[in-house]
């Protein structure tokens, strides 16, 4: 027997001696399998058991591969349905902003369908009025701005000593440009129509739709899903409303400054600043750079420097004074995640992705944190739970 020394002879009483262990104490570790079988049978693969840690990591790797495949398939599906997905997400974001107003109207005995229709009508009137005003101003100022752009291009070529191509030179043929423009306009109109329809449906039947989803679940899972969804919904609604206030402040402040400085296309640049402010970090910088470039074309270097200072001051006030007050730490993600979300969204969906990925990331973070809190804040990786500093885990 392995690990046991048999007795050499009987003791004096004629009995058989008990076998003695070879070591000073009992075995504490697993028995080591001998290389050859005592009977001469060769060692087979079935006799070898892999270590437990290897099995655990193999299981983790398999789960990660399955998850990566599912994410890839979902991304491929979304890429084929980009217009539909973007329309649904935009409608959800607008519904999060307008839902409190619709609920307030319902408490004052206004039919929910009428309140939802009125909210959609307000969105159409505001957006249509702004676009119409921008179109009129562009039609009035664009010829003059083109002449100023040609003059600025000639001056820049003379200053640098190289030929700077004019933006009006080159390009595709008229037919190709017209075909591309028609296709883009058709996509935009279809997307706007879908957004308005989905927005009305979410405002009118949102609670009924969500109740239908919850009916398919039960027990603790139903409570968790409902709590996570409400956390994501309130976070995104508060974030979009707060960001709208900050964007309006930046647009009004920079727009008034551009008017006082006599910069052409001031209204268009103000609207660009408002829209670009929905892209955190990058949008305001791009809109400010465009305003400085237009100011340089229309008024020279001094006007461009004044616009740069104006944009910097207004944006700093908006980011450091207005935003903390209206947001009240409603965005449960830090600056690194915000920049990563903007970059990933821009690479995947272009401008629409850069606008939408930050609130989507905030919603996922809020939902995940709510689930983590409801289950007692267990450690995601490692051993037993340890006390964490106060507030840690709220921001991803």
Helix-strand topology string: EEHHHHHHHHHH
Please state the CA-atom Rg, rounded to the nearest Å: 33 Å
Overall morphology: globular
Count of helical regions: 10
How helix-rich are the residues, as a percent range? over 70%
Strand content: under 5%
Mean pLDDT: 77
The total count of strands amounts to 2
The biggest sheet, with number of strands, parallel, antiparallel or mixed sense and barrel status, is: 2 strands, antiparallel
Structural class: mainly alpha
Outline the low-pLDDT stretches. 1-15, 385-396
- Give the terminus-to-terminus CA distance: 59 Å
List the strand order in the largest sheet: 1-2
Task: List strands and helices in order, with pairings.
Layout: E1 4-5, E2 20-21, H1 52-80, H2 82-107, H3 112-160, H4 174-215, H5 219-261, H6 266-276, H7 282-299, H8 301-327, H9 335-349, H10 351-374
Antiparallel strand pairs: 1-2
Helix pairs in contact: 2-3, 2-4, 2-5, 2-10, 3-4, 5-6, 5-8, 5-10, 6-7, 7-8, 9-10
Your description of this structure?
The model is unreliable at 1-15 and 385-396 (pLDDT under 50). Helix content is 72%, strand content 1%. Among the domains are: 79-142 and 184-216, no CATH class; 219-377. It has 396 residues and is mainly α.
Jot down its keywords.
1% strand, two-stranded antiparallel ribbon, mainly alpha, 10 helices, 396 residues
Please outline what is shown here.
The chain has 396 residues and is mainly α. It has helices at residues 52-80, 82-107, 112-160, 174-215, 219-261, 266-276, 282-299, 301-327, 335-349, 351-374, and strands spanning 4-5, 20-21.
